[in-house]
Amino acid sequence: MRVIPITPVEALVPEQGLYASERKIYPRSVSGPFTRWRWYFVALTQAIFYGLPWMQWNDRQAVLFDVAARRFYLFGYVLYPQDFIYLTGLLVVSALSLFLFTAVAGRLWCGFTCPQTVYTELFLWIERKVEGERGARMKLDGAPFSLEKLVKKWFKHILWGGLAMWTGFTFVGYFTPIGQLGMEFLQTRMGSWEVFWVFFYALATYGNAGFMREQVCKYMCPYARFQSAMFDADTLVVSYDEARGEPRGSRNRQASLATLNLGSCVDCTLCVQVCPTGIDIRKGLQYECIGCAACVDVCDGVMDKMNYPRGLIRFTTQNALQTGGGRDQILRRVLRPRVLVYAAILLVLTASLMTSLAMRMPLKVDVVRDRGALSRLVAGGKLENVYRLQVMNATEVPQRYRITAEGLEGLQVASDAEVLVGAAESRWVPVRLQIPYGSSGPGSHAIEFRITALGQDAHVREKSVFLVPR
Predict the structure, then answer these.
(1) Residues 264, 403 within the same domain
(2) Residue 26 has what DSSP assignment?
(3) Among 38, 100, 219, 314, which one is least packed by beta carbons within 10 Å?
């Protein structure tokens, strides 16, 4: 009897990994108006980020979030944790601004001002200066180990690490006075939390901008996932004009398109080579596209060399592509209902936030009853309640405040009625209130404290209760 060997199933199925490895992207350098705009925003955002902690205002750091002292300095304003509503309003305004910009012109934030984009541009600039342009970097990575490769790689990473450490140091300088932080660093006396956050932020910058780059935009950033909910057919996005570009193919510069039966796309793939996320814009709108318009700049350059009209890849809308509409049609559709609603809400919220901040009372008071002595009889036939008032001076000059109370017959302040609070300081003040014994029935009676800044039109009213025992 003939024995037929059985081939194992594993031998029939080729070995395949569970995850496909990411192909490293080597973005090609590009020049053009959108690239210049991107670098303008890189310079602007980094000048603000690195320079703001060194700006002085009234002999202090202009912007400082002093968490330990629970005071936040924002130029001429001194904010306390009780002013958290302003931070909430700022976050809401920022979110609505993002919605508005996205509805009008897609992912402009991602392509020009997002920190991930900004630091990736800076790290790529260092990489190009050390290792060369795209071809040289690819050749270096594929070359065997050598002294040249070791020196270039290490020098690049040293520069990356220095920029990342300076970024982490600046970030912590918003929470610890940066001048003090610098002295502590030089004297190796930085606190453990400061050391942790400097290295943590530096490591995040080094990893995200140096290695993860497009993975952050494609997989980690939630904005890339829900942006499609804010797009519509009239949103300006980077688009490839398929009707004009197809069929694509290489050709001589002097060749006639009509004779060759080709579109304007010469299939040079430069639009793919310059893309920081490695996509092919000719495949249509993709969530990985960050709207940086690098492909627009490089394609316009190719069109110029071929003596073709610019705009094969351009900022336009899906409606304009389908109908052949021009700039006038696009501008008319900018003021559509969605954009008007976003703009109106944003305008109202911004105006309300700015008005509230401008009219903000530079005085905060919290009233806390002394639970150790709720109510007691004192000399002179008086019934006394004891309170603790936290008086917060939200100005940068010392203030004297007068404390009064009302709400019961004969109610008076038995302790010091005036208190001095230093500039941008918070002080706990014990306050004793007394009424004639028997002037009010037993129970809890509503009263009101009034704290007035002497010499200024600033006062605060705070409610509390006066307890009369049975």
Answers:
(1) no
(2) -
(3) 219
Residues linked to residue 194 through DSSP beta bridges, in sequence order: none
Helices (H) and strands (E) in the chain, counts: 18, 16
> In sequence order, what DSSP letters do the residues of 133-192 get, joined into one string?
SHHHHHHHHHSPP-HHHHHHHHHHHHHHHHHHHHHHHHHHTTTTTHHHHHHHHHTT---H
pLDDT at residue 124 in the model: 96
pLDDT in tens, 231-253: 888 888 999 999 999 999 888 88
My answer on whether 326 and 378 are in the same domain is: no
In a domain, 163, yes or no: yes
SS (HEC) of 329-394: HHHHHHCCHHHHHHHHHHHHHHHHHHHHHHCCCCEEEEEEECCCCCCEEECCCEEEEEEEEEEEEC
Question: In the chain, what are the helix, strand and coil shares in percent, each to the nearest 5?
Answer: 45, 20, 35
Contact 234, 333 (CB under 8 A): yes
Residue 378: partners with Cβ closer than 8 Å, 6 or more residues away: 384, 434
Q: Cβ-count burial of 187 within 10 angstroms (0-12 exposed, 13-18 middle, 19+ buried)? A: exposed
Q: End-to-end CA distance of the chain, in Å?
A: 111
Report angle CA 402, 403, 409 to the nearest 5 degrees: 135
Structure-block tokens of residue 15:
């070995």
CATH number at residue 378: 2.60.40.10
Separation of alpha carbons 362 and 310, rounded Å: 57
**68-78: pLDDT as tens digits:** 888 899 888 88
Instruction: Concatenate the DSSP letters of all residues of 264-300 into one string.
Output: S-----HHHHT-TT---GGG---TT-----HHHHHHH
Q: 390 near 70, Cβ under 8 Å?
A: no
Rg (Cα) of the chain, in Å, rounded? Answer: 33
Which residue range(s) make up the domain with 373?
Answer: 363-468
d(CA 175, CA 340): 38
